[in-house]
Design brief:
By secondary structure, the chain is α+β, with helices and mostly antiparallel strands. It has three domains: about 5-50 and about 185-255 and about 365-405, FAD/NAD(P)-binding domain, CATH 3.50.50; about 90-180 and about 255-355, D-Amino Acid Oxidase, Chain A, domain 2 (2-Layer Sandwich); about 465-564, no CATH class. It is about 35% helix and about 20% strand. The chain contains 19 helices and 21 strands. The chain has helices spanning about 5-10, 25-35, 70-90, 110-115, 130-140, 155-160, 185-195, 240-245, 270-275, 320-330, 390-405, 425-440, 440-450, 455-460, 475-485, 490-500, 510-525, 530-545, 560-564; strands at about 15-20, 40-45, 60, 95-100, 150-155, 170-180, 200-205, 205-210, 215-220, 225-230, 235, 255-265, 280-285, 290-295, 300, 305, 340-355, 365-375, 375-385, 470, 470-475. The strands form four sheets. Strands 3, 4, 5, 6, 12, 13, 14, 15, 16 and 17 form a ten-stranded mixed β-sheet that branches. A six-stranded mixed β-sheet has the order 7-2-1-11-19-18, with helices on both faces. The structure holds flavin-adenine dinucleotide. Flavin-adenine dinucleotide binds near residues 44, 56 and 351.
Amino acid sequence: MSRAARLDAMDGAAPKVLVIGGGINGASVYRELALNGVPVMLAEKSDFCAGASSALSRMVHGGLRYLENGEFDLVREALDERNRLLKNAPHLVGPLRTIVPIDSWVSGALNAPLRFLGLSKAPSRRGALPVKLGLSFYDIYTRGKGGLPPHEFWSAKTATARFPFRPGLRCAATYYDGQVSHPERVVTEIFEDVARAGCDAVALNHLEVTKIGPEVTLADRIGGREITLRPEIVVNATGAWIDRTNARAGATEDMVQGTKGAHLVLDHPELRDMLGDDMVYYENVDGRICIMFCLHGMVLIGSTDIKVPDPDKVRCEADEQAYILEGLSWVFPGMTVRADQVRHVFAGVRPLPVSGAGTTGQIPRGHFNRWTQAGLPMLSMIGGKWTTFRAFGELAADEVMARLGLTRRTGTGDLPIGGGAGFPADPEAWCKEAAAASGLSQARVATLLTRYGTLAGPLAQSFAGERELTGLPGYSDAEIDYLIAHEQVETLADLALRRMVVALAGGLDAAALEALADRLAAARGWTPTRREEELHRFRVRLATDHGADPERIGLHRKGEVAAQ
Ligand SMILES: Cc1cc2nc3c(=O)[nH]c(=O)nc-3n(C[C@H](O)[C@H](O)[C@H](O)COP(=O)(O)OP(=O)(O)OC[C@H]3O[C@@H](n4cnc5c(N)ncnc54)[C@H](O)[C@@H]3O)c2cc1C
């Protein structure tokens, strides 16, 4: 369906439910409602998955740290959801062995209960004992659930033989959690699943809800059109924007407080080779937990946790970058990072509930819903981890269906996501067969399998005769054209930052940008002037928000970045 057709279908419609926000939680509740036969529409003001849902540390995890805050129910639920995702989306979510370097035996053992009781506010060093207790909880809870191997402890000798940790290490703990390679694709595939199921549902990006009353007004940020909807219920799934969205219905209550987190993507072969397939989960100088692991051939390292008032105005600042790099040389003394090795940076805002917690780390990470009345009933989805999106969407959908007097017909607990359906037990044999059927090389089909799961089969056939694009190794003209035609790509940022793995793989340079602009301009019928404007706007954004080297991305004129 074209964008114009989607807008026509929405304008003046009266769906049972309007979901505002196309992050992971909005997509989740949309899927739950649509698959249960509830007529539903979704509007996202930016692109799908452009908020916190693409800025995460990419851990699909129980949340070892949350045990310190006494969030046992959250950790239990997150472990269940982690295990489900490993099964339902194996092309995008995989196991991640995690290493925790430990400096002392017992420190933090008393601090954790004190923090739980609200008697201690500072992040503290975690000794072997509290880590052991936390990991035992993980193992006991997941035992027999077909999950991941149990934890182990390494002696200091074993740990320092594997990693060049700083002197004074007592031991290291190892355990397994999950990682999501491309969270944006999970959201895209959820929308595609709903479309394929033929539900009475429409989702549109670049469509901002500007006013909420009995009638809802929406502004099309691409074509400039204004439309209205008359839903029976509104679900506010706008994460860190929840209060701003509720304000558009006249509400003044504060429900969320955002904390910003930033990450760096390093092109650092020494660190990458040293990490291998492991994640290091370590305390920074101030005791805050940070992470680093390899992703798409780069090293992902982060993050920070800073209260911010405006989710629209966040970027990774210089002091955050310094803090993250200080932590790296604290855990691995002597490891240096040159400025040109920081290839990409990103930041997002955690949508945490308003809380009286002393530190940002102590704010609860669980989720809950709140009903308010704004001329029509409105449900705000507050908090939540990326890992628990399915459970949160299920909870919100149940509340909405109860209010509508409807009963659940189907669940999503065992439902594969996109190309996770029929994922082969023997991927190599599967790729061999798909390569023979399509004429593409087996290596190329293997790449497509990691991106699209089993959807790679039909895609490989439709990409027959494809041509690799200059400046974009691993992507072909046919693949880019497919993404543009089928996945609601409206801007270069939609394409380069979310539909593809190119920025995070360190591959966004001037040649890549030109190639992408050519494909998108041709598909959308942009004039040469429009193409140049779009390209320039995106380059400026890459330089200001994502730490791109202006020279490398072809943003030549001096002073251009500062002037924006
Ligand atoms: C730095 C960081 C690290 C994290 N690490 C992890 C991790 O490793 N593992 C994990 O499980 N979780 C992690 N999280 C938490 C997780 O990312 C978030 O809890 C989750 O993504 C929130 O999803 P959401 O859909 O509620 O919000 P968002 O993804 O922010 O989506 C809200 C959407 O609403 C849209 N919107 C706002 N206003 C309007 C409007 N008026 N009209 C239409 N649309 C609107 C926004 O554009 C946005 O896309 C992390 C978060 C951060 C910031």
